[in-house]
Structure formats: structure tokens, C-alpha cells
Batch of 4 targets.
Target 1
Amino acid sequence: MEIRADKESIRVSGYVNVVGRDSRVLRDASGGFIEQISPGAFGRALQSGQPVELRYNHRKTLESPDMQLREDQIGLWAQATVTDPEVIDAAERKELRGWSFGFVKQKDHWKTDENGTRRRFVDDLELREVSVLNVTPAYIATSIEARGEDEILIEFRAEAELDGGVDYVRETETTATTQEKTITPEGESTMALVRKTVEYYTMKRRRDNAL
């Protein structure tokens, strides 16, 4: 993740997830497994036209009229200008840790390799949101949301940077000048981790049910 800051805003950019790369060992009810997001899954999700929200720690909605999301040969890349004071303050204190995303699985398949390791491949997904984190995610997380008469499983994953992987750049230009610049993303060393965050979706379901 690269963070460029001035007095009025910050611009964050980097890879939310590297496709085709093994995660760390995750765990479910059946034990440990390794996961990959299949190449093309994010691109198809973005082409569907489903809105993707920008959030802070999966809870707080962030306004960013210039947010960009795309899948390239590396993975899902994001860039956004944020004017939220809480996030700017976290950036000033160098507390931002990386990206995370929330998704609903549309299609996946499982394999067991010769060592007996279970491997999950997420082939298609519904991308719900991407989040900027000020905490280091540590484990797999899920949430349940009602959709009509059904319940859907929302999963959260994060690409937390290795030490030194978050690059803070102080800028003196105005916000307008900052937004006009283009950042070319570079490949980043990342490890797949997860943050348990369910409160937002629980409250959202309650609000929706109350309407």
C-alpha cells in the first residue's frame, strides 16, 4: 500500500489481493486449508456492475468519488482519495496497515494435494467492499446477511503488508493537484491474513429488517 498525504486528504493505492497466490493456512470447521482467488474473479465481479463500497475497518463508509478498482495481471488494485478526518489522523500517525475486502462466494472448488492439504479456489465472487485497515488482520472471518428468504455468507480477507510494506509519502500540493497525479502500481510482497469484522453487516441486516 502507498499512502500520499497532504493537509486535506490522503490518497491510498495498492493491491487489495494478489490472485493465484496461496494464502497462509486458514481454518474452518473441517480444519486447515489454503486459499487462492482465481485470476479473473475480481474482473468479472467488477464487470457485473454491483456497487463496491469503500470502508474503514469494514465498518465506516468512506466517501471517495475518484475510487478506482481494476484487476490486472497481479491482482485487484485499488486507488482512492479519502478526506475522512479519522483516516487522515491514522495516516498521520502511520497506523494504516493495508487493505481488506468482503465478498460473497459465487463459485469455488476444492482439491486435496499429495500432502493431504485442503486447497480452496474461489473462481467467482460478489465483491461487496474494500476496506482500509488500521489494524493488522490475524484470522479468517465471516458474517451472515439475510437476502430475501435466504442467508448468505460474507467472507473477509486481507493482504497485510510485511514490515516496511506501507509507504507513506508526504505531499505539499493541494488536494486537486494530488488527485490529478497518476500512480503506477508496483508489485508488492504480501501475505494473506484475515480480520474478524461482523458488526457492520449485523447492524445493516437489523436496519433492513426494520424498514
Note: The chain has one domain: 2-210.
Target 2
Amino acid sequence: MQLPNSAAKLLSLAILVVPAVTALDCVKEVDHKKEYTSNGKVYKLYCNSEIKPLTPAERTSNVATAEECADLCAQKSDCRHAFYSAKSKICFLRPPQTSIREKFFQNMVASVGNTWGWIYDRDVPANTGNPGSNLGSGTGSNPGSGTGSNPGSGTGSNPGSGTGSNPGSGTGPTTPPSSGNQAEYDCTNNKDHKKLFSINGRTFELLCGYGNHHTGYQTIPNVNSLRDCAEKCALDSSCGNAEYHTGSGDCELEPDNNPVLAPGYHLWVPKFCPDTPRAQNAVTNPPQTTDLSCPMNDGHIYEGVDGTWYYIQCCSDSSAAVVTGFAQAQNHKDCLDKCSLDEKCSSVSFDTAAVNNCKFYGPGNYSTVHKPGIHHHYATSPPTSAPDHFGSKRCSTECPEADGQIFASPSGENFVMSCKKRHGTTYLKAVPDQYPSFASCMTACGALPACQSVDYEAKTQNCYFSTNSKSPTIAAKAFMSAHSAGCSGACAGCADESCKDLKKGPLGPRKYGCPANHGKPITIKGVDFQVACQHAINSHPYNQVTAGSYEECIELCTDKADCGGVNWIGTTCYHHPDNNADGSSAFVHQRADSDAYVKIPGHLYTSLSQAP
């Protein structure tokens, strides 16, 4: 039967199928270990798997989908894995995983399809938008495309030509945090030889053409992926090496670390410290990271839970700082978190082997003291980006040039202007006044004693008065806003000690000696000393040492096994042994013209604790 042209067109539209977003499936586990990207971070899905630790966890109810749970995790720097219960619609945000039992619940009827685990895997490479999960919403011959944090992408036999139902607006982060993990590893022509992979707080280095000739304790068949082989070893605390068999694709887990040349094999070996020679200075523009794994993130900066930025030095200890305390930490991140929340701690060392494995320090700097098993962090300057010198224009009241500028109203009230933001707090008038410009809106506010801020919408010319004297926080493309910074001259002059402080100039270099640090432990070049002001060591034979300062006097003692401490008398340095050569008692006593610095631990340190 021949259809009229109009009917044929209607029928062709009716049978046109635009593909929908395919939901992830954990019931049949077809999407197990599938990747998902959100906020510049790539996560792997673990279906019906047990992931530890279970605590601490941040609980969020009424989460509609597993993907939304991953999105919540991606927004928080301290979330490293997330658990989603499909039945209860609850999302748990958790710290880095310590163990994974894949598909542990697959034979438990009540749990199958209910247990979704998201594990942070890596960051999206720099200068690229994140792969989008929303399809193009139009129709035509070209797939929808976008760039930025959530680009659209059309698919199917007749993909959309739009930009996606949630297109990105930018080109992706220019300097995103970096974990260094690759999606895949390849030993063809030694392409990825000595590349690193980090997960579960462990870092492994790939040695192409190497193997471990010892017998492994487990061989996993048909892994067929160098990366997956490394991951299986990293998640097993008893695994020392992971040997990949190129012929069969098997992965053999070894209990020891014994790399040897072996054609036909590739070996993952543990990597704890950066390659030598080590850098002698901090990186000028260090990259950011959300991962503390060493040595992959050596020379990176990390944002602590309190917002302070820390410089990461793997296999290093403090070169010179006052010890302010000790703590027991569950892991590397836990140690830095504890320091971030301690008001006296501004640098910290995590010792992977000690009992009190988290040592707090006062202010620290870049250290050239390198010690395997210890990772050092010190508070540093936050990251910066190049300013847009032409993004603002003085005296402008039009956006975007007015953003961040000051407007002085005729009444003397100063307003700080913000573009694409609004306050959104309760307005003084139920029905807003209308003014022809942003400037006239601010002028009207300045004439009202009760008015402290305005939200102005240029399209409607509505001017909203409110009493919020703080910066606006609500993103709103159609609005301009301003808040009061007080009247001209209101804060002139000095009403407190600030002017005196200004005349004194900046603070001098930080010291760790006497008298400020009497009775405190300090760490010099990775060696601990106890400060004893107006005390002297009595032990022999002692040596007079040439040193230009007490700092140099102590530093020269750190590397000497026969030096148990120093006396700094006037401007002279004396090195003393921890015990007397003749076996008589060595001790520390009070002396007004001497300051003593005693190594910890030792006989002299014990004597000092008993000194008056």
C-alpha cells in the first residue's frame, strides 16, 4: 500500500529511535569495574563487592542513583570511595579503601544488585574536558558534543546534533589534581617501563621484561591487563611483586620482591621513594594532588582538611623544626588530617614503622634530609593562577569589568561590586524598585541607612535592597550585586596595635633555640634533640667545634655517632659524648651561660629528665 507523502513523513518520525542513557547494571554485574567520570575524577564501579573500611563515613539519604552517589564523592577532597545501597537509596562517603573482596555478595540474594561501590582511580588529564554521560538532545547527522565538566555526546544510528542535555561550558580544568595513574599500561618497546601505579596507599613501578623467579602464592588466569595485575597485588597486603605473563595473560602474585631480567614477563615492584639524585629545592609551581601516595606525589601540594596547603616530600624528614606533639595515625592521610586540625602543627612527618607514627612540628621548610619510610609535609603557599589584567576596569559599573571593584556612592557609602552573583537574603521591600542602571541602584541603597546590599537584574531593572553586608554566595548569571564596605574615612587611622606592628616590619626568621623553646623537643636533619636552656652537659672527652651559630653547632652533631649533645656557650660550640670514656656518670646540670641540646634518646637525655 502506497502512503501519502505526509503520512510517510509522520511514520518516519514515529519510528525514529533516539537512544536513551543506558543505566548501569550491577544485578548481572555486566558493568563491574566500568569507569565513570565526575568533577575531573575517574571512578571504578565494584558490583556486589565488600570494600573496607566501613567507617568513618558520611551518610546522605534520598540519593536517587548510584551515579549521583559517585558525584557526591567527587565533590569532596577527602572522599576516596563511596558505597551506595540501591534499596535504601543511601550513599556513604568514605576514606581510601584498605581492602576489596570483589563480588563477595554475588551469591547472597538479598544483596545482589543492592551493593554498589565506587573507588577513586585517577584524575582526568590536564587541559581536557571530562567525558560526558548525557546524550545529545537534538537530531541530525552529527553527534552532540560539548566540552567542560559534563559535555554532551550523541550516539546511535541517528545521533543528536545538539550539545547534549547538560553540555559543559568550559574546556576542563587547566591544572587538575594528578594521581599519575594511567588507564592502561603497555610494555611494547618498553613504552611504559618504570611508570607508576598507585592504589590503596601503595605504589608500584612497572619493570618491562622483568620477572620474579620465585614461586608465587597465587596465579590468577586470564587477567590480560598490566594495570589489573598491579591492582590485584596492591589490594593484597601479602603481595610483594605482581608478575604478568605475556603469553597467557596470567597474573602471578609473589610474596617477595625479587626482580630479575626475564623475557616474556613484566613485573610490578613496590616503589617507596623518588629516584635519586633528589631535588635540592622545592618545585617552583608544584602541581596539585588529592592523593598522598608516595613516591608518585613527591613535589606536589595537597589541600588539608582545614584548607591549608601542604608540600609533599616523600622519604624525607624535617631538617629543622620544633616538635609540638605526637599522634597515632591509621594511615598517611589520617596523619596529615590530624596535623591540619591541630593549631600548633604546621609541618608533620608520617613514619610508616613507628608506634607514635605521626610527629607534629611547628613551622617547617623544604628539607634535604631523606629517610626511607618517613614522609614529610610542611605548610606552603596555596596554588595560584595568572591574573586577567584586563578583566576589570576602574570606575566601571558594568559587568564583567565591575567585578571586584569599589563604587563610591554620593552619600559616602562604599560598595564592593560582584558580577553573576546575588545575595538572596530577605529583601527590605516586598516589591522591588526599578532603576535604569546598576550605579543608580547602589546610589539609592547608599541613601538608606538600613540598606547594606543590593541585587540588581539588568533585564528587568529590578533593584533589591537587603541588609546583608557580606559577599554574595549564590551564582546567578543574570544578576549584579554589591555589598557595603563602610563609609569613606570611617576606618582611617589606627585604633589598635596594627600600626605599631606595621612599623616593626615583617617577622624575622623562625628560631628553634633558647629561650623560647626551653624544654621542647626539636628535630634537626631528621635527628631529635631536647632543648635545655641555661644547662650544660658534663661528659668527656668533649671537642670544641668551629660553628658560626648554635644552629650549625647542632647540625654538625647530627651525623656523628660519638656526639650525644652540644653545649653552646657564648659563641662557642662544644660536642659532648653520651657517656664518659672512663665509665663514670655523665649528666646535665644548670649553668647560666650555657644552652644544651641533647640527643633523643640517650643517657644524657635520661639524665636531663632528672635534672633540676
Note: The radius of gyration is 32 Å.
Target 3
Amino acid sequence: MSGQAPPPYLLLFEQIPRGYTQLPTLPRTALVEKLHNAIQSSRFVLLSAPSEYGKTTVMNLFILRYTAVHCIPISFYTPDVIANELVATHGLDVLQKSCQLPQDVGKDQLVVFMLDDAQSKFEDKSFWNSLIEALISATGECTLCHLGDTYTRERLSCKFTRDDFLLGNEEAIGLFYYPGIENDNRVPKQLESPELRDLIFRECNGHVGALTTVVKELCRVSRRGFKKSVEDVISFYKSDQLPKYIPCFSGWHMQPTPKLKSFLSKYLTGGLDCGPEWSGEDKECFTSLKAAGILTGSENSNIEFTCRLAERYYTKEIFPNRGVENPSSLHGLIRKVIGSMSMSFIERTITPTYEFPLTTNSFLAQVMTGIALWTLPSCPICPDVSPTFPHAAHRIGDEFDFYVGADLCWGIDVRLNGEETDIVEARLSTTEMNTSTLPVTDFVVVDIRGTKTGGLENIPRTPNRVTVVFKLTDFSRCRCVFGESEGSELIHLQW
């Protein structure tokens, strides 16, 4: 409506001329002002955030906003040309400690040399030592460097780090609704869901590149009609499919090499302890992953992924058959395990008689695969485990087909057609789980049945039992009774 004020997030955008940044872009007003203030008080300003945090964009925005400052942007991402030659073409000879400013520079005008992708010339130590230690003298110019985290000097008084470049909530909202894609800048209506927006914000954690990559992909699948509702988009975002369509969780993040995969594997499985005992290779890998914006922290303190989206992407990259999070309850795990079973696999195991096999081996393989798929790589899964070990006073036998360890401590037993389910459940219920040698916080007996009708007649409802009922000849779905619930749940299987 013509008389209405524009929505708050629309006010966050400025039209930026082509050649600087993609249309439209966030003005990042507070960050650009902070950078301007830093330049007034320091002759050398270091932008040391990892890749894809918007450092180049901020420098371009600075050029556009502060026209009274004479800015000289220089890209160091130029092969076969040494650093000093690149800056010398603009009148600055670092090694000779001389500076010939352009003729159009005013007498008292501030000159800022902007060194973009400076990490590309890190090997030129003499250049950097000369620049940092001697160049910034009384000539009145300022050098603004866009560096990765690898090259830092404690004696540099003015540094902008990752935290400075994180998106605030209002900026994230602006970028979410107007990501600047193709000719239609506003996101499709399927994405205008507060639930979806808040979910993405939590998982991107202020990371500019991650948020941009995700929103662009969701816009793509929505505009092409692949995801026609909010529920479809949310389901796609939460699925294992999303990481396959986002390049390394953000446009320019790194595809892990074998060494980096080994390092990430140790980290994801809990086998990497912070401290001085790190090997040289571990330190090198961590430095690379940190510079790429994948990990944050330090080798002597806690390290973690920069955002949840990064954790999801690299968990699936390193462990494609493991989950990206642990379920909140044992029943929740069983739901997911059943839903991930293969209907065609089950059908092949019982044809041509269409009677359940005398052993549970075929189902155990499906359950094992499902447990792995829905738990973290750091969560061990142990088959054939007893709540008490042989030296315990009252061993009750190998009752658990699977023991899910880590912080979960869950026991799972699988039975067919009610075979000994009452006996097993009674024995496990009377065992002092919390005082036994093996800690068990919860257990379940999964009773898998096949009937001609698929009905739920005479199904016992007890706290630690899940009954799964298939209709013989149709294994595409099943009815499940969880614990003492009077109702049932319909769960569809995978092909």
C-alpha cells in the first residue's frame, strides 16, 4: 500500500553499483563506521576473519561511503607477480621505503591502500616485515589488509577478527529476505516462515557465506517448483539432501584433503584432545580449517565448528552413514530407525513364503544401519552386550542386541512375533540398571511382527516395548505402538 512505511529489513539495503559487490547488498553500516574509526587512529588495519565473512565487501562499501578518502584497492590474488611489484605500480615501494602518491591526491587527503587476498603472498616474508615494521611512517597513508587468520602479529594494535564480521540479527533478516538472486531479489513465499528463518539463523550463526549459500539454494528449489510449501522447504533443509547441494557449506570453503579428513574424523569421534601434544600435522590441519572458516578456537582450548551448518556438512562428508545429531529419546531413535528400513530388503528376505524368518539377523542388520544413521560418529554402537559383565554377581545373559553408548546409554533388543518378549522385558525391568557394571539409562524391546491384516489386536502395551506390525505382502509401511500408548503411529519405510 502506497502510504505504508517499508518493512524494517528493507531499510538495511543500499543499491551498490556493479563492479563492487553483488546487487543488492547489506550496507553493514556499523562495521564500515568501525573500520573508518580504526583507520583514523591506526596506520595499519588487519582484517583477519576467515574466508566468506565479507571482508572484500566491507572494503568496497568503505570506498562507496567515504568518498573523501582516496582508496587504492590492490588484489594480491595475482599469480607470478610478487607483492612489492603489485603495490609499486600504485606508487608504493615497500622494500625501498618510498611512496609516490598519485597527483590527484589532495594535500591533506587520507590515502588508504587496500590489500585484498593478502594471504596469497604470505611466502614473501621480507615484504611483510618491511611493511609492518618500517613503511607506516610519517607519510600519512594507511594500509588496510584483508588477510586470513594464518598471518597475524600480536604487536598489531588494530585487528578485525571473525567476531567483528558476524551478522547481527537485523542484518541477517535483511540478507534472508533479500539475498539478491537473479532478477527477483525477494525470497519466494515458501521461505517467509519465521520457523524456517529462525532455524537457519541458529544453524548459520551469523556466518555471511553460510547464510547466503543456504538461502540461494532454498530459493532455487522453491522457484523451480521442487518445494511448493513451507513444510517442504523445512523438510528439505533438515534432510541429508541439503549438504549435497551446498558447496562445502559456503561458496569458497575447502573440500577436505585426506589429511584434513583424518583430522576432522578424530575431532568428530572425540579422539582429539586440545593441548601441547598435538602433532605438527594436526596443527597444520587445524590452521587450514580455521582459516577456511570451518573451525574456531585454538589448539590449547576448546575447538568447535563455526556454525551448525558447517558441522552438518562435514559430518556427512566424513561419515556419510552417520547422523549429524543424537536423538533426544530412545523412542525417537526407534522411530527414525524404523523409517530408514528398506522395504525391498525386508521383502527379499521372506519371499517366497512371506513368513518371517526363524532368526532376526535380517532385521538386526537393518536396525544396526539405522542406529548408525541417526547417531553421531562419536556415539559407539556395541552389538550383543549384557547389562552385567561376566565377573558380576548376577549375569543375566546377552540381552541387548545393541548398546548405544556415549551420553545416551541405551539398550535395544529386537524380537520377532513376540518371541520371549515378556520374559526379556521382565528380566531387564528387574535388573538394577543404574548400579550394574554397564550404565543403562533406558532400554526397549522392539517386537517386529507380520500379520495377514496388519492389525493391532492383542498387542501388549508396556513401558519398555515398541511393537512394529507389518501387513504381510506390504512392507512399505507399518503400524507402531510405543510403550503404553493407546494409539499407534503409521511409519513409512524407505524403498
Note: Residues 330-492 form a domain with the tt1808, chain A fold (CATH 3.90.1570).
Target 4
Amino acid sequence: MSASLPPPLPSCTPHPSGEGAPGFLAPLLKSVLLVCLVTAALWAVLALIAIPLSGSEALRALLTDENLHWLPGWVHWLLTHPVLANVLLCVSSLVGVLACWGMLRRWRWAWGSFVALLAITAVLNGVVVWGVDDAFRHLLAQLPAETYSLEILQLRRDLRVLRVIWGVLMGLTAAAFAVLHGWLIVRLCAPDVRALFRR
């Protein structure tokens, strides 16, 4: 009578989820896809709203108002081209939608597009921080340098405090997202993830 063989031991190697993809990939892509869809719809609605406003007399009068000459150049551009600005933002969100959809289908071009969008978004977050600080700088420069008005002195102090608060909050947020995006880029460039995108 021959001895029976013992049952095989269970494998200690975790099984990957869904066609060998890491567990984080599908939830990440679906969440980013949803965010891109919502933002694309938002920018599209704002572009439609901006169409009648862009040709209004009120906006033209605002742009020619001498009291607003201190506004930064990028703010003037946004006020002058509101439809184009919203359309560009809508298109960028749609590119994100296509990249997420393509990655879910395991398309190679979508992988490269998604990685590029992560890097570009991290840089643009820093640009937004600079833009807000630049607006505060231009506004503070319009206040009289030497004045005895208590209201203006208090306004200058309040604006400086707000500039620091907004700068710190937005800077920390941008830095946190930059670290997150950097980690995602490194993870997506790992061999096990890149091997999923061969088409």
C-alpha cells in the first residue's frame, strides 16, 4: 500500500488583481476618469456662459477701466478671452478622460499620455500658486507707500496676512500633490505596470 502524497502548501505569493494589474490601478483610473468628466462638463458650461458675456458692454468697460490697470497680464488675458480659456480647460479635461479610458483598455499611448498629464498637472499647480501670489503683489503695489490713513494701513496689513495664509496653504497643497504625482509616475513607470501596456 503506497503512502499518499501530502496536499500542496498554499502559495505565499499574492495573486494580482485583474489581468495581473496592481490593485491600485483600476480604482485610480476610474476616480480620475470621474473627476475629468465632471471638470470637463463644468468648463463646457462656463464656456457657454462666457459666450454672451465676452461681447457685453460691461466687460468692455471693465477692461478699459483705468482703475484696473494694475491687474496682472494673465488676469487681463483671462478677462479678454474667457471663452477660449474655458474651452482649453475643457479640452485638457477631455484629454484626461481619453487617457484614463485608454489605460483601462491597456493602450500604450494612453499610458504615456497619463504619465505626461500627471507631470503637467503637478507643474501647473505650482503655476497657480505663483499666480495668486502675483495678484496679491500687484494689489499691494497699488496701495500708497506712504500714507497716514489708518484704513489703508489696516488694509495693507490684512492683505499681507492673507497673502501669507493663501501662499502657505496653496503651497503645501501643491507640494503634497507634487509628491503624490511623483510617486504615481514612478509607480506607473515600474516594469510590472509598463508590461500591461503593449498595444
Note: Residues 9 and 141 are 74 Å apart (CA to CA).
